[in-house]
Amino acid sequence: MHSTASELARQLGPLRRSLLRATREAAHLPDIPDSHVEVMRALVDRPSMSPGALAAHLNLARSTVSNLIKAMVDAGLVERSVSSDDLRGAALAASPKALRLLSDYDAASSKVLSDAFDELTEDSRRTLDAALPAFVALAAILSRRPS
User: Fold this and answer.
1) Between 124 and which of 28, 68, 108, 120 could a Cys-Cys bridge form, CB atoms 3.0 to 4.6 Å apart?
2) Measured between alpha carbons, how far is 47 from 131 in angstroms, rounded to an integer?
3) Which residues contact 31 (CB under 8 A, 6 or more apart)?
4) How many CB atoms lie within 10 A of CB 114?
5) Domain at 62, CATH number
6) pLDDT tens-digit series, residues 4-29
7) Whether residues 145 and 101 fall in one domain
């Protein structure tokens, strides 16, 4: 195993949690589970998905998505309507509340990261700039792997 892979695996969780905590504090955002954020982002990217399509898109079990959707409808984050294609099916969409929260989160997260970048050395900023395409490629590779 590459030592870089091991170290990156160790650092990603703490980095993600630190960014999430700092972002929530900076923008006074509610504590929304990561799984809910993933569902909201998926529904923003692909509105009117069925629960089955959402499960396939997120690579989750249908029962898991069903439980997530129930909780998110109750929290006002997802709107469920009758599918125009199949009256027995449901179409899911991110609610206006979810769209607002995602927009607030993205703006605050960008600001928090930008401020942190300002504290890095010029070399570190250049290294991160150069590594960004590799992170995008790595995410694409990992998303194609079976769960």
Assistant:
1) 120
2) 31
3) 24
4) 9
5) 1.10.10.10
6) 999 999 999 999 999 999 999 999 99
7) yes
